């Protein structure tokens, strides 16, 4: 498992790049620094709904 995940440094630099130049679209999904269309087979609307609910609760804290 350790070999498959990116290093913390790489992940933080990827996130830093996205935050420095945010995508123009309101919903952006990235995998290994590449945009993934949120309509493809990897996107699960039910999982997205659960994530939205969790983020809403976190934002309310």
Question: Would you mind describing this structure in some detail?
Answer:
With 61 residues, the chain is mostly helical. 48% of the residues lie in helices and 7% in strands. The chain contains two helices and two strands, in the order H-E-E-H. A two-stranded antiparallel sheet has the order 1-2. A hairpin with a 2-residue loop joins strand 1 and strand 2. It is globular, with a radius of gyration of 14 Å. The chain starts with 7 loop residues before the first helix and ends with a helix. The model has no long low-confidence stretch (mean pLDDT 79).
Report, as a whole number of angstroms, the end-to-end distance: 33 Å
- What is the general shape? globular
Rg, alpha carbons: 14 Å
Name the average pLDDT.
79
Number of helix segments?
A: 2
Low-confidence stretches: none
Residues in helices, as a percent range: 40-55%
Strand content: 5-15%
